[in-house]
Design brief:
Blueprint lengths: L1 H39 L7 H18 L5 H29 L5 H4 L4 H5 L1 H10 L1 H19 L9 H25 L6 H7 L3 H8 L1 H14 L10 H6 L2 H4 L7 E3 L28 H8 L2 H11 L17 E7 L13 H9 L1 E3 L2 E2 L6 H11 L10 H5 L10 H6 L4 E9 L5 H8 L2 E5 L2 E2 L15 H12 L5 E6 L14 H5 L1 H4 L7 H26 L6 E7 L7 H8 L11 E2 L2 E3 L7 E3 L3 E2 L3 H8 L21 E3 L5 E3 L2 E4 L4 E4 L7 H24 L1 H9 L6
Parallel strand pairs: 2-8, 2-9, 3-12, 4-13, 5-6, 5-8, 6-7
Antiparallel strand pairs: 1-12, 3-11, 4-10, 9-11, 14-15, 15-16, 16-17
Helix pairs in contact: 1-2, 1-3, 1-7, 2-8, 3-6, 3-7, 10-11, 14-15, 14-28, 15-27, 21-24
């Protein structure tokens, strides 16, 4: 009996020796996944089972791959796998702490300068959360010690590795089958695995390691696997106006004037309320493309209700356009009383009471894409602006390309490096002659001859305005940088240091808040200068000014809390902001109550400029039309005029007090999902290029 147990124990020990790598790798990855999930989500959110299963699979893969070679090579591989695991989790944690979304390695690897340029912010965040970083780093050291001490990592026989590979494959297949069997909604773990619609949702529901796997899969495939998988029934048949609207008036003029009935005219003004569409033959567009993704999109667009023209259609026809994307701007900053010019523009033109600026993937690049393209961004895998500028894609309805076809001169300016985020490629594709630091603008330097960070928006405006407003009509686009992180004084932020005295007496507790306002104040000075120059040149009455942020100050959400006077936590109200559409020709402000966001700016501007466009083909919608308001967020949260869904807290809130039925909520989820799938497919199929060919438009002119 004793011999039997000794033999059995010896067999168990032998099996452990052979498969200890699988055990230890699985334990390591499980530790990371559970710790990371607990830090960022909740361990009881129903996603842990799939995450555990994928951890076992990755552990098996690492184990098999470290059993083919001699012990030293196997140990080297095991060490590399361990370091890789630690780096992935630490990178995800730090990236999220800075940018408030998760890292798509494939999508952002070519833009490593993003991390370098934010090095001070990254280091600051690591220091502030050093305990969490240590908890993520220590297991790597322990694992490496184990690898090089008591773990053998002998070369296994081929059939042993075959058994290990088969076992890993079985666990993987079983996991996918169970996920498929229990898939109940459009954002189930299985659907996220299959279509990879969002890196944020994938990290939450599949785990960090499996999210990386599907990220690599999409990168290798080159095209999103989501192409042509539009839930067409939801896209065309859901009546969003009945699901997501209220009966209240969404738009009214702000005025304190009284009207003398005796003097009122009886002449009825006929307003054109026909659909904003082009005469498109979708079958002909499909024939030009000859692929399923384009055909699916055409079917989708053909069944999307267009928005209608309205009393504001063409009110700025022929006007000059100055469009500004404001770095790191939050509308709550206006409550400080520090921005009289910006406040005038926000309060005396179109006043958008319920405007939101979501934090789109890709930081400023994502914010620009939403503002300028009227579309959400891909949430991971690639940067939408860069993909849209590929040769096979088109930017048909961008403001610059549209106005260039009408004879406008179109220039874009930025007071940072002209190649950052490949803007030397993307912005000419948008239709701009691109002028930025190193390409028409000189880098601004301090007294020591060093490049300042950030640069001055005021100086950018001073150096460009007079030169590029001589020929009319013109469209100028400014991408500011003075409001960029980090928010501190001295060398940390040259603009905050420059304007420090302006904010010194403000009643805020956080120095970061004051530094943030001081950096944004440089944009206020830019606007003040611009308004004076417009007035002096007699251009105020025939120029429309558009201004919106690119994103919230993502690394300093406590600043947003202090500016707003409340702790938002995971509330979507943290993304409430201000949108400017203003012209001196407006006799009185117009208040717009319905919810709207950054993707709605472009179609709204196309409407007020009176240009021909097809409202079905742009994901955002004309805010001034009679369509229902809808705000989309990258994590698939959404806000309508009637209710909102917060995906982070998984809560549904009615704005009217009326109960939202399960059917209405499910239908809205599908409707929202289609919006994101459609925008990905537009970019990946080059849909606008085929529309341009059908219309006979040369996109190079």
């Amino acid at each position: 009996m004793i011999k039997f147990f000794k033999a059995m124990f010896g067999d168990v020990r032998e099996y452990f020796r052979k498969w200890s790598g699988w055990i230890l790798f699985t334990v390591l990855i499980l530790y990371y996944e559970l710790l990371f999930h607990g830090m960022n989500f909740s361990l009881d959110d129903g996603n842990i089972a799939a995450i555990i299963a994928f951890a076992v699979v990755v552990g098996g893969v690492f184990s098999v791959l470290t059993g083919f070679f001699p012990p030293v090579i196997n140990k080297i591989l095991a060490t590399l796998f361990t370091l890789f695991t630690g780096v992935i989790f630490i990178a995800q944690y730090v990236y999220h702490s800075v940018f408030n979304n998760y890292l798509s390695v494939i999508g952002t690897i070519k833009f490593g300068n993003q991390a370098v340029d934010n090095a001070d912010t990254v280091i600051s965040n690591i220091k502030a959360q050093i305990v969490d970083v240590i908890l993520l780093a220590v297991p790597v050291l322990i694992m490496i010690v184990c690898i090089w001490t008591f773990m053998a990592f002998d070369r296994r026989r081929w059939w042993v590795n075959l058994i290990g590979a088969a076992g890993t494959a079985l666990v993987y297949a079983t996991t996918l089958f169970v996920m498929w069997a229990v898939a109940s909604d459009v954002y189930s773990p299985y659907n996220l695995y299959k279509e990879y619609t969002s890196v944020d949702l994938s990290v939450e529901k599949l785990g960090v390691m499996e999210s990386f796997v599907v990220d690599v899969r999409e990168g290798i495939a080159g095209k999103s696997s989501a192409q042509s998988r539009i839930n067409f029934a939801s896209g065309g048949e859901v009546d969003i106006d009945s699901l997501a609207s209220t009966e209240s008036t969404t738009m009214q003029e702000i005025t304190t004037e009284t009207v003398d009935v005796a003097e009122a005219t009886t002449e009825e003004v006929v307003i054109d309320t026909s659909p904003n569409v082009l005469d498109l033959d979708f079958d002909a567009i499909n024939d030009l493309a000859g692929n399923d993704a384009v055909s699916s999109l055409s079917e989708y667009f053909a069944n999307i209700p267009p928005t209608n023209k309205n009393e504001y259609t063409g009110m700025f026809e022929g006007y000059n356009v100055i469009w500004i994307t404001a770095e790191g701007f939050s509308g709550y900053a206006l409550d400080s009383g520090l921005f009289p010019t910006l406040s005038k523009l926000a309060d005396e033109g179109f006043v958008f009471e319920n405007y939101y600026q979501p934090l789109w993937y890709g930081s400023t690049s994502g914010g620009e894409y939403a503002n300028l393209m009227g579309s959400p961004t891909k949430n991971g895998s690639y940067l939408s602006m860069c993909r849209a500028a590929d040769n096979e894609n088109g930017m048909l309805f961008s403001m610059a390309n549209t106005l260039k076809r009408l004879g406008y001169s179109c220039y874009g300016f930025h007071d940072n490096d002209y190649t950052y985020y490949d803007r030397n490629i993307t912005h000419p594709a948008l239709g701009y002659e691109w002028i930025a630091s190193g390409n028409g603008l000189e880098y601004q330097t301090d007294e020591n001859g060093q490049d300042m960070w950030p640069q001055s928006d005021l100086v950018m405006m001073e150096e460009t305005f007079d030169k590029y407003t001589e020929t009319q009509p013109f469209h100028l686009y400014y991408l500011t940088v003075s409001g960029h992180v980090p928010y501190g004084y001295g060398a940390a932020n040259a603009m905050a240091e420059k304007n420090k005295a302006v904010v010194s007496d403000l009643n805020y507790v956080l120095d970061t808040t004051k530094a943030y306002l001081a950096s944004q104040y440089e944009m206020e000075k830019m606007l003040e200068y611009m308004m004076k120059r417009l007035e002096k040149k007699g251009l105020l009455d025939n120029t429309v000014i558009v201004l919106a942020g690119d994103h919230v100050p993502y690394d300093n959400m406590d600043v947003v809390d202090e500016l707003a006077g409340e702790n938002f936590g995971n509330s979507l109200e943290a993304y409430r902001s201000r949108l400017v559409i203003w012209s001196a020709s407006m006799e009185k402000p117009v208040r717009v109550d319905k919810v709207c966001s950054s993707i709605d700016i472009l179609p709204t501007m196309l409407n007020v400029m009176g240009v021909d466009y097809d409202s079905r083909l742009i994901i955002g919608r004309d805010i001034l039309s009679d369509s229902t308001g809808l705000v989309l967020f990258p994590d698939r949260s959404f806000i309508t005029d009637a209710f909102e869904y917060n995906a982070v807290t998984d809560t549904l809130t009615s704005h009217t007090g009326a109960e939202v039925s399960d059917d209405s909520f499910s239908a809205m989820q599908l409707y929202v999902a289609d919006k994101f799938t459609a925008t990905d497919n537009i970019t990946e199929s080059g849909y606008y290029t085929y529309v341009a060919r059908y219309l006979g438009i040369d996109e190079d002119n």
